[in-house]
């Protein structure tokens, strides 16, 4: 069988499984639709959190980003895992104890204000929408590269599958599908990693051979020989200040992403919320401990294969010619010496896109066609699982927080479920549209999602739990300050691609770039909400009781 | 059962303990991630850890293992605290 045939078979099999799960977990009440009836087992929820979290970016792009950033790639490795410490210790248990459906639910109730609820709902929709465009794009790329179908067709097929299990099963269907998708993702990531590690170091456990073997040191030497930066030395690509700020923005942003937070509402107790976080970091950590190894090994292999080799020899390598046609790998012999010159200077003749690091690994390492098919299925699972979680989150913000809690408080269960499904369908169409024709600044927009999460939702939820004196006025002033500061700064620093000015309006905010500036927004949010709350009236008695109740230990009937 | 107006003495004890756990664990989180991998990256780069430098290992793998340990320790400690609280509550009722 050809690679394409195997890939199609594998993708169809996994899609049938996802669809079957959607049918099996179809729901009829809003509690199941939004929070899966709050009885998802801890381990399954941990796997669902991991699949929800690990997007097309984690699966396809991250190892490549790390490979090209070297030491400074830590911003993604620490930034996208360290946020779980904040979630597990500071947010998840209390939000579960609060026991409602959504993030705007908590913010609206805690700050006794529909204004705060609406702001939180709009922030939720905006953050989720920016995120989902990247996922749909990922689906389209995998379809077009591995199955030779048009990106538009690929996006439409992906949408249909996601729509089927999300419309039918709501959060319950999404949760169980994600749990299965996690295992597809991690197997697809680990098998090529083990194979390339065994080939280069003789030890298949990539996470270990990464430090026990001298590949990383040799990669550093090769890079220096080629005139590039030393791989293991810190702050060669980003300043220390930016590494600090970007890591913090990604961590706080992770803890402020509504589609991640809401996963902790789906378990049955506070204790289960804490243990879900443990399982989530185990499942996520498995990929994140492997990614730096994949990045370094693949880069070493790639440089070793093409640098300073005769052009003719390189062009005859099968995977080189395949990737050349995608435009993600380019080289031409500019000085005509018949050798591929790969350097950091002007005489460089090679352009490698970071996205091919993971996707090309099975081919570079000469793995069986089945593995290549598996990586395609894994990329699809990563993109679809994240997209489905985002869809449910957007849907609940519209149909639950805005329609039911603000406009129609007397809506019946059936009405709310119907509005939920209609909203989901519309969200699906919007996502398909942005997937097919993404805005030109899609990459920058992700920085925005994290920056806004860090500067708006994270501080407000945190203060809502830990500062009893925090009131409506403080919270709203804080969110608006954090949001507007971060929006304006990111807009100004990235104005070239967002508004289309000639060159950025602002180079950086005192040396902090767009991805790190959310931290300043977060600090401003904390300061403003503190000052405003202390100058205005304290929250009413019933809100103070709500906070006490969220903090109080949960008495466990079945002691489990 | 009617909702209590404020936390009783036992619940306040539970909350204080919880806050102390959180602060301790977050201190480790900050020291490892922002100290070990960023602020002290230059000096720690001179220390060898197997085939790589210590700073590099913390930045790319070690910190993630620490994050996992912190979340695990918190879950275990809070389980114990829950049990302790339930025991005290039972004592209060009996005695």
Automatic annotation (TrEMBL), chain A:
InterPro entries to which the protein is assigned, alphabetical: Na/Glc_symporter_sf, Na/solute_symporter, Na/solute_symporter_VC_2705, Sodium:Solute_Symporter
Any one GO molecular function term: transmembrane transporter activity
Topological relation to the membrane, as annotated: Multi-pass membrane protein
Presence of keyword Membrane: yes
Pfam families to which the protein is assigned, alphabetical: SSF
GO cellular component terms attached to this protein's record: plasma membrane
TM regions (residue ranges): 6-25, 46-69, 75-95, 116-134, 146-168, 180-200, 243-265, 277-298, 370-398, 419-436, 442-463, 475-494, 514-532
PROSITE patterns associated with the record: NA_SOLUT_SYMP_3
Keyword Transmembrane recorded: yes
UniProt-annotated location(s): Membrane
Chief location: membrane
Keywords: Membrane, Transmembrane, Transmembrane helix, Transport
Family the entry assigns: Belongs to the sodium:solute symporter (SSF) (TC 2.A.21) family.
Name the UniProt record assigns to this protein: Cation/acetate symporter
Automatic annotation (TrEMBL), chain B:
InterPro entries per UniProt: Na_symporter_ssu
Record flagged with keyword Membrane: yes
The keyword Transmembrane helix belongs to this UniProt entry's keyword annotation: yes
Pfam families: DUF4212 (PF13937)
Residues covered by the Sodium symporter small subunit domain: 12-85
Transmembrane residue ranges: 21-41, 47-76
Name the UniProt record assigns to this protein: Putative solute:sodium symporter small subunit
UniProt keyword annotations, A-Z: Membrane, Transmembrane, Transmembrane helix
Residue runs in coiled coils: none
């Amino acid at each position: 069988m050809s690679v394409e045939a195997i890939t199609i078979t594998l993708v169809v099999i996994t899609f049938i499984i996802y669809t079957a799960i959607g049918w099996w977990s179809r729901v009829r009440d809003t509690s199941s639709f939004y929070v899966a009836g709050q009885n998802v087992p801890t381990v399954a929820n941990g796997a669902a959190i991991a699949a929800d979290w690990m997007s097309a970016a984690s699966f396809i792009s991250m190892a490549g980003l790390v490979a090209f950033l070297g030491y400074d790639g830590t911003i993604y490795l620490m930034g996208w895992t360290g946020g779980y410490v904040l979630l597990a210790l500071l947010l998840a248990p209390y939000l579960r104890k609060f026991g409602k459906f959504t993030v705007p639910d908590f913010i609206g109730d805690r700050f006794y204000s529909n204004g705060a609820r609406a702001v939180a709902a709009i922030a939720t929709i905006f953050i989720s929408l920016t995120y989902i465009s990247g996922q749909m794009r990922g689906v389209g790329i995998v379809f077009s590269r591995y199955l030779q179908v048009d990106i538009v067709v690929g996006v439409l097929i992906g949408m249909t599958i996601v729509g089927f299990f999300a419309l039918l099963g709501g959060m319950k269907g999404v949760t169980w599908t994600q749990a299965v998708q996690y295992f597809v993702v991690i197997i697809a990531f680990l098998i090529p990693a083990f194979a390339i590690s065994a080939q280069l170091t003789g030890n298949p456990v990539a996470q270990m051979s990464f430090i026990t073997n001298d590949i990383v040191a040799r990669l550093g030497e090769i890079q220096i020989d080629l005139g590039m930066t030393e791989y293991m030395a810190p702050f060669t690509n980003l300043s220390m200040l930016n590494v600090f700020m970007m890591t913090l923005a990604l961590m706080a942003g992770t803890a402020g992403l509504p589609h991640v937070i809401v996963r902790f509402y789906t378990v049955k107790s506070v204790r289960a919320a804490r243990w879900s976080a443990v399982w989530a970091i185990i499942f996520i950590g498995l990929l994140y401990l492997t990614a730096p190894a994949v990045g370094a090994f693949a880069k070493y292999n790639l440089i070793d294969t093409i640098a300073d080799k005769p052009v003719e020899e390189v062009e005859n390598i099968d995977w080189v010619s395949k990737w050349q046609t995608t435009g993600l790998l380019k080289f031409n012999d500019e000085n005509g010496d018949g050798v591929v010159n790969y350097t950091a200077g002007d005489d460089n003749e090679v352009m490698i896109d970071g996205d091919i690091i993971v996707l090309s690994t099975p081919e570079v390492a000469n793995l069986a066609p089945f593995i290549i098919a598996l990586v395609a299925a894994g990329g699809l699972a990563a993109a679809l699982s994240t997209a489905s979680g985002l869809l449910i989150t957007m849907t609940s913000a519209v149909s639950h927080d805005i329609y039911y809690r603000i406009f129609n408080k007397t809506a019946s269960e059936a009405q709310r479920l119907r509005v939920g499904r209609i909203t989901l369908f519309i969200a699906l169409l919007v996502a398909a549209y942005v997937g097919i024709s993404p805005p030109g600044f899609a990459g920058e927009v992700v920085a925005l999602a994290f920056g806004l999460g860090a500067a708006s939702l994270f501080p407000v939820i945190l203060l809502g739990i830990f500062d009893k004196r925090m009131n409506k006025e403080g919270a709203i002033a804080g969110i608006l300050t954090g949001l507007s500061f971060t929006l304006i700064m990111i807009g100004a620093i990235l104005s070239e691609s967002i508004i289309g000015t000639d060159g950025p309006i602002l180079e950086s905010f005192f040396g902090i770039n767009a991805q790190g500036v959310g931290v300043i927004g977060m600090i401003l949010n904390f300061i403003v909400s503190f000052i405003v709350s202390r100058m205005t009236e304290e929250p009413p008695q019933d809100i103070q009781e709500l906070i006490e109740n969220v903090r109080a230990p949960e008495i466990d009937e079945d002691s489990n | 059962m009617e909702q209590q107006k404020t936390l009783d003495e036992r619940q306040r004890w539970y909350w204080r303990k919880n806050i102390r756990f959180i602060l301790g664990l977050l201190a480790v989180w900050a020291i490892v991630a922002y100290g070990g991998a960023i602020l002290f990256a230059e000096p720690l780069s001179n220390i060898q850890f197997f085939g790589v430098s210590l700073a590099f290992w913390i930045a790319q793998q070690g910190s993630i293992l620490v994050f996992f340990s912190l979340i695990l320790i918190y879950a275990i400690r809070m389980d114990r605290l829950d049990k302790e609280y339930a025991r005290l509550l039972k004592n209060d009722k009996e005695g």
